[in-house]
TrEMBL record:
Molecular function in Gene Ontology: 4 iron, 4 sulfur cluster binding; glutamate synthase (NADPH) activity; metal ion binding; oxidoreductase activity, acting on the CH-NH2 group of donors, NAD or NADP as acceptor
Pathway per the UniProt entry: Amino-acid biosynthesis; L-glutamate biosynthesis via GLT pathway; L-glutamate from 2-oxoglutarate and L-glutamine (NADP(+) route): step 1/1
UniProt keyword NADP present: yes
Gene: gltD
Protein name per its UniProtKB record: Glutamate synthase [NADPH] small chain
Species the sequence originates in: Streptomyces regalis
Reaction(s) this enzyme catalyzes, per UniProt: 2 L-glutamate + NADP(+) = L-glutamine + 2-oxoglutarate + NADPH + H(+)
């Protein structure tokens, strides 16, 4: 145990953010560089090294949290990094992007602020990169087997790295022009600078993983042809079919899916555009959807100089604190969350539903009409007399995703079965109904968190490795049927 009295002697401290007026002028990460290291040893000491570490159960990766907390407290960064990488291929991704269900399951969190697990994690990996100790781990020998991974998000990259290190020759196919999936084009630069992805890709290249960009399986290359080329395939194509809003006026110009809007802002940071083809500059922006993707749209609109930003959510405002009856510890509670984007301004409106859009004579959206809603007999129902309209010259739809892409032909060309939720069905080894074809991440689980994606990639890699060789020593942290600790 790091410090038996650490949780008594030290309160919770988190990473410091740069002032709003400063960070809105650039696209760099919002946190003050280096602000964590002076406090992280004390924060790690708050870990109680519980007899039953429920943080392990909160995290699908099974991260060895008390162990690397102890090493961080003692400032043994090399050992801390080794423990961190034992269960997680990309802790710099999760340490920045994960909503930290491990902290919700922290035993200290029963009656005190939880250990800053996420901040300790990112401090360890950043220290390891700075020290140059994150080295490629090329396999000692090759198996002679080949694997294609479809998709380069966190699930695809995790599966590819595990299979490469097991000795297989792995090629990752990505339909975009750069590797990273939604990590690259869906996550704004201010949440995670893309240099973190780039150096992991270079590590993977040094290990032997090959990357093929600009190739969409199903369109540019038939799935059946791909299967002939490789001994096994891992599908990690994500759940990219966005939920739409079929209301009058949806066809007006200026209404976009979030994943039509956000990638263009990221492409500006990559140097592809000087200004984005879709910009919030001087416009009244409305974001429909109260989740993390909606918050990403809010922060992006602020940086593009929006005249105003309003975020709409159909559900009621969540509680500030955990309800011990409806959301008991150690489940992951739905709480009111103020992200860095929300700190920067804008209005958040809860319990409202869009009824229709109104445009000008040129077909551009100008107004959004909404009504308040309430639960009546368990069903969301409009409240009479609450209709109103708000200015909306740019609208982004951030209402989640309904499943993997069916239009490109990948599912049908492979002949894959789907489950009752429209996801690609798989067995206990993450194998589909087609022998040698596996599925990992949102394509099989449905829309989920980055930690679940990486855990799925690692688990599918084990199933694929066993299919290729008859046995596998790769770890499999989860089963396809596992779910978050939710009520």
């Amino acid at each position: 145990m790091a410090d038996p009295k650490g949780f008594l002697n030290h309160g919770r401290e988190v990473a410091k953010s740069r002032p709003v007026d400063v960070r809105l002028k650039d696209w760099n990460e919002v946190y003050v560089p280096g602000s964590l290291l002076p406090i992280i040893s004390k924060q790690a000491s708050r870990c109680m090294d519980c007899g039953i570490p429920f943080c392990h159960n909160g995290c699908p990766l099974g991260n060895l949290i008390p162990e690397w907390n102890d090493y961080a407290y003692r400032e043994d960064w090399s050992a801390a990094s080794e423990r961190l990488h034992a269960t997680n291929n990309f802790p710099e991704f999760t340490g920045r992007l994960c909503p930290a269900p491990c902290e919700s399951a922290c035993v200290l969190g029963i009656n005190q602020p939880a250990v800053t697990i996420k901040n300790v994690e990112v401090s360890i990996i950043d220290k390891a990169w700075d020290a140059g100790t994150v080295a490629p781990q090329a396999p000692e020998r090759l198996s002679g087997k080949t694997v294609a991974v479809i998709g380069s998000g966190p699930a695809g990259l995790a599966a590819a790295q595990q299979l490469t290190r097991a000795g297989h020759t792995v090629a990752v196919y990505e339909r975009a022009d750069r590797i990273g999936g939604l990590l690259r084009y869906g996550i704004p630069e201010f949440k995670m600078e893309k240099r973190h992805i780039n150096r992991r890709i270079e590590q993977m290249r040094a290990e032997g993983t090959r990357f093929r960009t600009g190739i969409e399986i199903g369109r540019d290359l038939k799935a059946t042809d791909l299967k002939k080329r490789y001994d096994a395939i891992v599908i990690a194509a994500g759940a990219t079919t966005a939920r739409d809003l079929p209301v009058p006026g949806r066809e007006l110009k200026g209404i976009y899916q979030a994943m039509e809007y956000l990638p263009l802002a990221n492409k500006v940071q990559e140097g592809d555009f000087v200004t984005p083809p879709i910009s919030a500059e001087d416009k009244h922006v409305v974001v429909i959807g109260g989740g993390d993707t909606g918050a990403d749209c809010v922060g992006t609109a602020h940086r593009q100089g929006a005249a105003s930003v309003t975020q709409l959510e159909i559900m009621p405002r969540p509680n500030d604190e955990r309800n011990a009856v409806s959301q008991p510890w150690p489940t992951f509670p739905m709480l009111y969350k103020v992200t860095s984007a929300h700190e920067e301004g804008g209005e958040r409106v809860y319990s409202v539903s869009t009824t229709h859009f109104e445009g000008d004579e040129d077909g551009n959206v100008q107004w959004l009409h909404l009504t308040e809603v309430e639960f009546v007999e368990g069903k969301l129902t409009p409240k009479p007399g609450t209709e109103r309209k708000i200015p909306a010259q740019l609208v982004t739809l951030a209402m989640g995703f309904t499943g993997t892409d069916r239009e490109n032909g990948l599912v049908d060309q492979f002949g894959l079965d789907l489950d009752e939720r429209g996801n690609i069905a798989r067995d206990a080894d993450f194998q589909t109904n087609v022998p040698g074809v596996f599925v990992a991440g949102d394509a099989g689980r449905g829309q989920s968190l980055i930690v679940w994606a990486i855990a799925e990639g690692r688990s599918a890699a084990r199933g694929c490795d066993r299919f290729l060789t008859g046995a596998s020593e790769l770890p499999a942290p989860i089963r396809p049927t596992d779910r978050s600790l939710m009520v």
